[in-house]
Amino acid sequence: MRLDQFLRYSRLVKRRPLAKIMADGGAVEIEGKTAKASSRVEIGDVLRLRFENKTLRIRVLGEARRNLSKKDASGLFEVLEESAHALDEKESLSGAPMDFLKRS
């Protein structure tokens, strides 16, 4: 399954275009390697997601082919680690601006 689809169906990200921007901006890693939106996600993969104020490490437990309820979507992954942090205004991932992570 594509990374951007997994992030959307698992409800880790609200919209697929945002998942694409995050991945292409370097905010997502699969097994320690920077991933693109089209990267394949397999069951058992460990993902690292960097949001504006936290970082999540998750293990993929399942796949979905459609939108799921919140309860069912949480069964697609297991949180391995969650760490909070604050980004500096000038800090960016892989040179990409962090504006897409900020909420208005």
Describe this structure in words.
Helices cover 19% and strands 24% of the residues. It has 104 residues and is an alpha+beta fold. The chain has one domain (3-86): RNA-binding S4 domain (Structural Genomics Hypothetical 15.5 Kd Protein In mrcA-pckA Intergenic Region, Chain A, Roll). The protein has a five-stranded antiparallel β-sheet with strand order 2-1-3-4-5. The model has no long low-confidence stretch (mean pLDDT 83).
Helix and strand layout, with pairings?
Layout: H1 3-9, H2 16-24, E1 28-30, E2 33-34, E3 46-50, E4 54-60, H3 70-73, E5 77-84
Antiparallel strand pairs: 1-2, 1-3, 3-4, 4-5
| CATH top level label | Alpha Beta
Radius of gyration: 13 Å
End-to-end Cα distance, whole Å, is 31 Å
In CATH, the homologous superfamily goes by the name RNA-binding S4 domain
Tally the structural domains: 1
Structural class: alpha+beta
Total count of strands: 5
Number of helices, where a helix is a run of at least 4 consecutive DSSP H or I residues: 3
H and E string: HHEEEEHE
User: Strands across the major sheet, in which order?
Assistant: 2-1-3-4-5
By CATH, the architecture is named Roll
- Give the CA-based shape: globular
On the 0 to 100 scale, the average pLDDT is: 83
- Taken as a percent bin, the fraction of beta residues is 15-25%
CATH topology: Structural Genomics Hypothetical 15.5 Kd Protein In mrcA-pckA Intergenic Region, Chain A
